[in-house]
Design brief:
57% helix, 81 residues, mainly alpha
């Protein structure tokens, strides 16, 4: 990387680390040129989630959506089903 840093530094007449320049450039491309693709992927994910929620055949359980079973007494202690 030192060679690229030296070449780039001479080209722009400033001393900047090539890795940092490359990283910032990739972020810029991601935020601008690829923003529409990212938006499309997010929209597709939302639509897939909505279809999964509407599908009666699928069962999705997480800690916050899982049905709570009532507690029952068994041999003097509370136990869950």
């Amino acid at each position: 990387m030192a060679v690229l840093t030296n070449i780039y530094s001479r080209f722009i007449d400033q001393r900047r680390d090539f890795r940092e320049v490359a990283h910032q450039s990739k972020l810029l491309i991601f935020r601008t040129a690829m923003s529409s693709e990212l938006h499309l992927l997010a929209q597709m994910a939302l639509e897939a989630e909505e279809r999964a929620e509407e599908d009666e055949g699928s069962i999705v359980c997480s800690d916050r959506t899982a049905p709570q079973m009532p507690a029952r007494k068994e041999k003097g202690t509370l136990r869950h089903w």
